[in-house]
Amino acid sequence: MAPKAKKPAATPAKSAAPKTSKAAAKAAAPPKVDAGVVKAKEKALRAKKSVVRGTHDKKNRKIRTSVHFRRPKTLKLPRAPKYPRKSVNKTNKLDQYCLIKYPLTTESAMKKIEDNNTLVFIVDKRANKPMIKMAVKKLYDIEVAKVNTLIRPDCEKKAYVRIAPDYDALDIANKVCCD
Amino acid sequence: MAKVKAKELRGKKKEELLKQLDDLKKELQILRVAKVTGGAAAKLGKIYTVRKSVARVLTVIKQTQKDNLRKFYRKKTHKPKDLRQKKTRALRRALTPYELSLKSKKELRKQRLYPLRKYAVKE
């Protein structure tokens, strides 16, 4: 700010001189043009001074309160892709029809239907309990209490689907198997 | 259900196709249950045709989808990568025909000054 502090002091002195000389030279010229010309001259002189002296500005240094230099926060733009990388997204190959393969009709499965109100399904190995629950709900329109799963020795997944007490497993089984 | 033909499927809309797919899959489910509970031979034989019909419907869906996307991106500069030319990795990175045709000033000068002359031998 030192050069600038000096400039206002200098320029009035300098502006006074050109003004009077200009006024003397062009008495007929209107005052507006005079002021414009004077201003331009002032600006030129100021620029010349700063170039000659050099701008040594000391007053804009930041105060460092910590020894560490932390990366400043910069602008992070969200993604705006010009084209999708894949034209078509993958369809879900494991839909409800693929999930549940078929119900089991062994004697022990029959026992489960009658006694424990559960249905026994052979299910895709990649299925998990919540997926099985949803699939059974969708396919047979029933409420499921819980699902237990195990993987058989022949690498098939078996799901014991316990049905809510207000539905009857026997009815559903008859509807499904004897359709 | 009669045999599903691809020709008939291609005219249909996406919702219709998806509905047909759903129906076919339901039927497949029923057939699979019949297989386990000891169904008639007719039912068991049908499993194969239904499976292939499902495949046919899915193929038609995918093909029309891809086709429409290609039409959509035809005039655009930035296409998805699977709609661009596949060729080979090296070919994709090779110089374009325009880039190959560029000649240096030196070469152009030579060509202009010393063109290929054709001579005729007098009989």
UniProtKB/TrEMBL annotation, chain A:
Listed Pfam families: Ribosomal_L23, Ribosomal_L23eN
Signal peptide from the UniProt entry: none
Keywords: Ribonucleoprotein, Ribosomal protein, RNA-binding, rRNA-binding
GO cellular component: ribonucleoprotein complex; ribosome
UniProt cross-references to InterPro entries, sorted A to Z: Nucleotide-bd_a/b_plait_sf (IPR012677), Ribosomal_uL23-like (IPR013025), Ribosomal_uL23/eL15/eS24_sf (IPR012678), Ribosomal_uL23_N (IPR005633)
Disordered, as annotated region: 1-36
Single biological process term from Gene Ontology: translation
Protein name: Large ribosomal subunit protein uL23 N-terminal domain-containing protein
Biological source species: Candidula unifasciata
TrEMBL record, chain B:
Keyword set includes Ribosomal protein: yes
Superkingdom, taxonomy of origin: Eukaryota
InterPro entries in the cross-refs: Ribosomal_uL29 (IPR001854), Ribosomal_uL29_euk (IPR045059), Ribosomal_uL29_sf (IPR036049)
Single GO BP term: maturation of LSU-rRNA from tricistronic rRNA transcript (SSU-rRNA, 5.8S rRNA, LSU-rRNA)
CDD domains membership: Ribosomal_L29_HIP
Keywords: Coiled coil, Ribonucleoprotein, Ribosomal protein
Coiled coil regions in record: 7-34
Alphabetical list of SUPFAM superfamilies matching this protein: Ribosomal protein L29 (L29p)
A Pfam family that the UniProt record links to this protein: Ribosomal_L29
GO MF annotation list: mRNA binding; structural constituent of ribosome
One GO CC term, this protein: cytosolic large ribosomal subunit
HAMAP family in alphabetical order: Ribosomal_uL29 (MF_00374)
Family classification: Belongs to the universal ribosomal protein uL29 family.
Protein name: Large ribosomal subunit protein uL29
Origin species: Candidula unifasciata
